[in-house]
Amino acid sequence: LIKGAEEILHKNVLIKARVKELKEQLAEITKRKGRKRKRIQTGGTIEYGTAALYVAAEVSGASNPRKKVGSRDGANRALPAQRRCGNCGEAGHNARTCKKD
């Protein structure tokens, strides 16, 4: 009876160690996923004209923004690629509004 109880206690210790290891792995994975979130504007509303000028300046000013080296603070983070039409491949519209047939 004592030997069986010792065996159960030993298994319990092993299970607790495994649970602790898995929780640490889960915390690491969760931390990685948290870094992938998009930035959210915190400054209030922005007018359409101002936003259009800002986007135009970004597109024309950066020759290839996706090649930038990223950092943790987000200052040099690469911008997402501009969406393109599925029919003709041009930027600025989508396949539903494409005028080329």
Automatic annotation (TrEMBL):
Residues 83-100 form the CCHC-type domain. GO terms for molecular function: nucleic acid binding; zinc ion binding. Keywords: Coiled coil, Metal-binding, Zinc, Zinc-finger. The keyword Coiled coil applies. Residues 5-39 form a coiled coil. Residues 64-101 are annotated as: Disordered. This is CCHC-type domain-containing protein. It comes from Mytilinidion resinicola.
